[in-house]
Amino acid sequence: MAGRVAVVDDEAAARKRLGEAFSRDGYQVETFGDAEAFLARQGQAPFDAVLLDLRLPGMDGLAALKRVKAMGGDTEVVLVTGFGGLEPAIEAIKLGAYHFVAKPVRLAEIRNLIKAACDKVALGRANRQLRQALREETGLESMIGASAAMRGVFELVRKIAPVNCNVLIQGASGTGKALVAKAIHKLSPRRDETFVSFNCGGFTEELIASELFGYEKGAFTGASATRAGLLESAGGGTVFLDEIGEMPPSMQVKLLHVIQERRILRVGGVKPIDLDIRVIAATNRDLKSDVAEGLFREDLFYRLNVVNIHLPSLSERREDIPLLARHFIDKYSLLFHKSVRELSPQALQMLSAYAFPGNVRELENIVERGVALCDGDIFDTGDLPRELNPADARPAQADEPLVSLEELERRHIARVLESTGRNKSLAAQILDVPRTTLWRKLKQFHLE
Known about the structure:
Number of strands: 16
Distance between the termini: 59 Å
Structural class: alpha/beta
CATH architecture of the largest domain: 3-Layer(aba) Sandwich
CATH class of the largest domain: Alpha Beta
Strand content: 5-15%
Shape: elongated
Number of helices: 19
Helix content: 40-55%
CATH topology of the largest domain: Rossmann fold
CATH superfamily of the largest domain: P-loop containing nucleotide triphosphate hydrolases
């Protein structure tokens, strides 16, 4: 498909000459006499390349360039001026112009510039489509990583996804356990059936039972109608049980029975219901230690732990930080309609030195905040939270006083709260705990 080119110039003769030349080169060309008409059209159907005059009636070329970049997208802008001097050229490049040329314009030069700009846009678009196709083929489109540790995870996911066995995913909070569970489902023969997720933490036994198993009409006060549970609703598909280590012991017995028998009884029911589901569980706890301490059933552990996938912390795969940061910049630039395109070397250095106790989820939160606050097209150190300075990134010194694990937990919760502006929902997401658990911790540590 030929590229789309816009010519924005208040001189009718120049518009006609350039438009005809670009049309002969095979481009779809539209011409405009002012910036306002061009921007209206750009908003409807973005161009690949724009030849934009600096001096226009009404809005000038620099202001129009800012608007184009604020819209996002791939459009490349070549700015043209009849006035000499470096200042407008420098300003145009800072604002993201592809190139800057002075009048009188040489047609051959302009045609080469437009071709190069359109080729750049086409190449970027083709690369994105290829990456998307590869991701869709692998089922790992939401997971970013090129480190040896993550390549091992990807290979294991591809290997076990087609096998109808239970999987236990273990890793610290924020490492992407839910993404791995969804990737396994997407690569499995069950991909066209339901994927159901349930968080086992922060709920009473009665609520877990009614959510997972469903209930019959009249089973308890308020049960005005029969309701299928999540396990039954996932028939033919995959059930993801997050925070499995938080499940009460009495519910562990019931879940073990379901996995063994592949049948459930609704709360208040007497007729068993056959199940065809795959179970994927996840935890940030050391379940082997919990089994040894009597906190988790050994028989349930082995039923779940047919295949174990360990997710590395972000500090164990620091080489992935640049990839992840740029991915999140692209994601939130598009979401927030920003024109942030690059991460400065200084900002990347600070991110790479940081410990990331909240792992990938914390990195995403930091980048999301930075893109929201960023004024230009470069994500720089000023867009990072103030705690991400070299002093904070350094490990504790040997002469620093040692504190209890409880005090470390209190300090970390306080820091996460501060970095999120005391947004408890976001803090709970970063800490990977239910809001009810966070509320109890806030009361315990007097952080309300």
